[in-house]
Amino acid sequence: MKRVVIVGGGVTGLAAAWALRQTSAPPDIVLLEKNNRLGGCIHTEHCDGFLMEHGPDVFLTRKPEANLLCKELGLPLQKTNQDRRGVYLRHGKELYRAPEGMSGLVPGKIWPLISSPLLSLRGKLRVLAELLLPPSADDTDESVEHFFCRRFGREAYSTLIEPLLGGLAGGDASRLSIKALMPHVLSLESRYGSLLLGISRRSTQKTHSSLRSLPGGLSSLVTALESVNVGSIRLAHEVTGIKKTAEGWKVGIAEQESLQATDVILAVPAWSAARITDPVNPELNKLLQSIAYRSGTMVHLAYHRVTPSRALDAYGHLIARHETSSVAACTWSSVKLNGRAPAGGLLFRIYLRGTDLSDEAMLSQARAEMALALGITAEPLFTRIHRFPAALPQYTLGHAERVNELRNKISSCEGLFLAGNYLDGMGIPDCIRNGIHAAHSAVDRHQENPSVTLEG
Ligand SMILES: Cc1cc2nc3c(=O)[nH]c(=O)nc-3n(C[C@H](O)[C@H](O)[C@H](O)COP(=O)(O)OP(=O)(O)OC[C@H]3O[C@@H](n4cnc5c(N)ncnc54)[C@H](O)[C@@H]3O)c2cc1C
């Protein structure tokens, strides 16, 4: 018998289980999740006609894996409201519309940028000079901040790009690696010499991305994966360690009997994988520990019959890091997606950096943001606070090399596979691709070594 144990019931682990189940001779599949629910970061909650996404709320279609998996599972996709596309940037008390096409951090169209009140004439000319700048001559890793300042100048970076980045990847852009975080942006520079030129060529090829969700929220994907019989799912099973045995791996579980497996897929954050692999390979453990993580908190504010001081004609607003508040972004959820609030209701989700503030302080900052940006001072119908400690990996300088090294090290641990958002992409499509890849690697190993089995 071949048994694959998957550790972690987030979207990565579930995608791995699903891919194993699709194979012609599926192994025995056991998925171990330490919490009492599946989904990991994905967590939808319904309350009084409101639909809250505590974690992700949409996925990109530029990377097709989430799209394809939903279609395969028969889940209808939901588009974001196209007539409200766009985001605002808050500087001081004012909201300024981000130039159209800026959501991918590179100005997609020149005219909206030139007409934006956010940049001075000098700043605009500096952005245009990007068309003439030569690409970087060497390929050493460069920070996101350095890269965008080099291409577009400091002014465009701090007024436009940095706040957008805060909403997407967060973290300290002077430490984040452009090569690991945005390889597609880097490739525009090497391929076209200029990002502006590259983007304009690409938009004529109609390759831009869209956002999708699911009408019942993203947890519907988790429920659908769970219901297609992806194997034996055991909740409240925390894996504490693994040990190599003659037949494969012995998986230690807190307060439970250990489990034998031919293969183990670790679909958990790097810091958790480090703890689990501690006795297996000290170098692997060290590399996993070196992946930095960032924490954040999602606050939901639900309102009934309030009138904001401005038109809600975008998906939300982002706040520059130099502003004093911990608030990084505010999604106007019931504007971005239909079905997020009942008639007469409005739903907002506010993302704050860190998890350390008390609930009271979190709420106070979130409500102050609503008052400042949208003039909403009314008491919310209800609120929710959801903390994500060490949930988002930081692709810091040298990340791509660290991941290569990790892959080298793991290849010497037969039957052990890593998957998750710290490897090569943080979005849901990346995690699905990653989980499926780990599952296929386990299956390939079985095909190459048919004698790999457990007794009984
Ligand atoms: C606030 C927030 C907003 C986001 N927004 C978006 C978005 O809009 N679009 C997008 O595409 N992506 C978004 N992301 C990123 C995306 O949601 C995550 O990268 C992805 O869901 C991670 O999935 P995962 O399965 O790899 O990890 P996780 O979701 O972290 O799941 C790992 C699971 O492993 C379990 N586990 C850990 N250790 C053990 C152990 N020892 N034993 C057993 N189980 C264990 C955990 O309990 C957890 O359930 C967002 C993330 C966050 C936090």
Summary?
This protein has 456 residues and is of the alpha/beta class.
Name the shape in a single word.
globular
CATH superfamily of the largest domain: FAD/NAD(P)-binding domain
Number of domains: 3
Radius of gyration: 23 Å
* Class per helix and strand makeup: alpha/beta
The distinct ligands, each listed once, are: flavin-adenine dinucleotide
What's the helix count?
16
Describe the protein's architecture and organization.
This protein has helices at residues 11-21, 65-72, 110-114, 121-128, 144-152, 154-168, 178-181, 183-192, 195-204, 219-227, 270-276, 282-289, 333-336, 359-374, 399-411, 428-448, and strands spanning 3-7, 28-32, 44-47, 50-53, 59-60, 78-79, 88-91, 94-97, 211-213, 232-234, 239-244, 249-253, 259-261, 263-266, 292-304, 316-319, 327-331, 345-353, 382-394, 416-418. With 456 residues, it is an alpha/beta fold. It folds into three domains: 3-40 and 218-291 and 395-448, 3-Layer(bba) Sandwich (FAD/NAD(P)-binding domain); 44-83 and 293-394, Polyamine Oxidase, Chain A, domain 2, CATH 3.90.660; 99-207, protoporphyrinogen ix oxidase, domain 3 (Orthogonal Bundle), CATH 1.10.3110.10. The radius of gyration is 23 Å and the shape is globular. The protein binds flavin-adenine dinucleotide. Flavin-adenine dinucleotide (FAD) binds next to helix 1, helix 11, strand 15, strand 19 and helix 16. The site of flavin-adenine dinucleotide has 37 residues, from helix 1, helix 11, strand 15, strand 19 and helix 16.
